[in-house]
Design a protein that fits this description.
alpha/beta, Urease, subunit C, domain 1, binds N-(iminomethyl)-L-glutamic acid, binds zinc ion, zinc, metal-binding, HutI, imidazolonepropionase activity, Metal-dep_hydrolase_composite
Length: about 425
């Protein structure tokens, strides 16, 4: 059965890419986004089943589809249509908030000081272990629904609050189950190497992950019980060092996972150079990246996933995003949603990226859509509004698309509809 949906009357359609086939944008191209706008005529976007099949003026689309039945019409008068946001980095499955640590951080404690005292990831691992499957699933689904309502139509979800295999496996199974409770798209990243469990060493855990966990994981992937896309490690002084990280990431690559990891965040570790060397698709954070690291990522076209909310709340220096863009590193964005950085709205990450990382509005939008999709390896289907791509989009009531970034924290007021695969998955209450 063919289902057609027509969105009409829009004042702007932000396609993001200018030519079909652009899988990501970098350098000066991040500034030159595709956009159709008119002050005089309405603009339409036609969807057939899950896909966009035409974009044009209301008159052109009406002519093109004359006599063809349309099942649903959405009035977008006075609105702008944008691609749904792709959040390239989150940790959404956990129990036990860390508001008490937020207060400590405001009083001057650093992330690593809190972690060394048994707080941080260790605290969340303990609370997650104590929670029931039902509690974890309910809170996970609630967080994913919040993201969807904030305009995110696809999200990368990391494990990482289990650390040991049985606990990580439980998180993987719950992430898999969440797909049937919420319409957001999910890419799963295996992040057992997120911290060192109590009474274990980094070396022991590296052995465990490389020789046991990844082998066990492969069986679940091969049987199609669990879909895992990427492998991750927290490559950081006092967590996994550069050689341990390399071994874990390469073991993941060996079973077909993409390399997508935390690097050069609190200290320079050489993560960017190592990641580029082993063919990483993406490296997150990069606040302490070196010039050599920038050059290596630019030439390997490894995505830098920028997480401005984290740097902002930890009061650390922002990554050198301007230098990265100028050097040709493809830049993507994420919220980093986790109990340290509690946030789920990409519009807030974009605003912070503009103000604190000196990105332009266009660069921030590119980073939050086509480039985030490419950082997850899915930009052939997602991240821009093009004929043939999935109809993942948001309809915002505002005079021009920039308002979704400019009106800080007001996405709930601006977003009228969110569509996933052509279906309305969120409509603002009238
Ligand atoms: N840096 C490592 N991981 C997360 C923080 C997770 C946590 O503190 O619970 C991050 O990306 O910011
Ligand atoms: Zn993270």
């Amino acid at each position: 059965m063919t289902l057609r949906t027509l969105i009409y009357g829009a004042r702007q359609i932000v396609t993001v890419t200018r030519n079909n086939d652009e899988k990501f944008l970098c350098g000066k191209d991040m500034q030159a986004i595709g956009i159709i706008k008119s002050d005089t005529v309405g603009l339409s976007l036609m969807i057939e089943n899950e896909n966009i099949i035409a974009i044009g003026t209301d008159d052109d689309i009406a002519r093109q589809f004359e006599g063809i039945e349309v099942d649903k019409k959405i009035d977008a008068s006075g609105c702008c249509i944008l691609p749904g946001f792709v959040d390239a980095h989150t940790h959404p499955i956990w129990a036990g908030d860390r508001v008490h640590e937020y207060a400590k951080k405001l009083a001057g404690a650093t992330y690593m000081e809190i972690m060394r005292e048994g707080g941080g990831i260790g605290f969340t691992v303990e609370k997650t272990k104590l929670a029931t499957d039902k509690e974890l699933l309910v809170s996970l689904v609630a967080r994913l629904k919040r993201m969807l309502q904030a305009g995110t139509t696809h999200v990368e979800c990391k494990t990482g609050y289990g650390l040991e295999w049985p606990d990580e496996l439980r998180l993987l199974k719950l992430l898999e189950q969440a797909r049937s409770h919420v319409s957001i798209g999910i890419s799963i990243t295996y992040c057992a190497a997120h911290a060192i469990p109590k009474n274990r060493t980094a070396e022991e855990m590296t052995e465990d992950i490389v020789n046991k966990q990844i082998k066990a994981l492969k069986k679940f992937i091969d049987s199609k019980e669990i879909n895992v896309n990427d492998i991750d490690v927290f490559c950081e002084k006092g967590v996994y060092d550069i050689e341990q990280s390399r071994r874990i990431l390469l073991a993941g690559k060996e079973i077909g996972l993409g390399i997508n990891f935390h690097g050069d965040e609190l200290n320079y570790t050489g993560s960017a150079e190592m990641g580029a060397d082993i063919g990483a698709r993406a490296i997150s954070h990069l606040e302490c990246i070196s010039d050599d690291g920038i050059r290596a990522m630019a030439s390997a076209k490894t995505f830098a996933v920028i997480l401005p909310h984290t740097g902002y709340l930890l009061r650390i220096e922002m990554p050198p995003v301007r230098r990265m863009i100028d050097a040709g590193v493809p830049v993507a964005l994420g919220t980093d949603a986790n109990p340290n950085a509690f946030s789920s709205a990409m519009s807030i990450s974009m605003n912070l990226a503009c103000v604190l990382c000196h990105m332009s509005l266009e660069e921030a939008l590119v980073a939050a859509t086509i480039n985030s999709a490419a950082a997850l390896g899915i930009s052939d289907k997602y991240g821009s509004l093009e004929v043939g791509k999935k109809a993942d989009l948001i309809i915002c009531r505002c005079p021009s698309w920039e308002h979704i970034i400019y009106q800080f924290g007001d996405h709930a007021h601006l977003i009228q509809y969110v569509l996933k695969h052509g279906a309305i998955v969120y409509a603002k209450a009238k």
